[in-house]
Amino acid sequence: xxxxxxxxxxxxxxxxxxxxxxxxxxxxxNFLGASGSARMVGWAMNNASKMEDIPAHRVVNRNGLLTxxxxxxxxxxxxxxxxxxxxxxxEDKIINFQQHFWDPSAELHEE
DNA sequence: TCCATGACATCCA
DNA sequence: CTGGATGCCATGG
Length: 111
Description:
The protein is mainly α. The protein has six helices and four strands; from the N terminus they run H-E-H-H-E-H-E-E-H-H.
């Protein structure tokens, strides 16, 4: 019965990421109150890869590095999508990552 | 129940 | 900078 999994939490947050913005796995994990379980966030994204409503390309690691680009179909799809939103990519990492960074715990709030 | 894996984060050499 | 090791939590076999 509608048991809310950790993934669902991640999906909700990721889906709320505005365009031209990005966030980190740790930030989401932290927002969920599970700082350290950032792996779960990434894993959730793996499952989210099949979700069309999950802009996983807006989720990167804390370095702003496109660690998950290898999981996208194609080689440059992730960075391409980000560039489409106005985010510059250099060497698989986001330029001015801090500038595009979107902190859910700062912009969002508990349900 | 135990073991292995995972799109991370952080520390140390 | 690179590589190895540890922690953290959840899922699957």
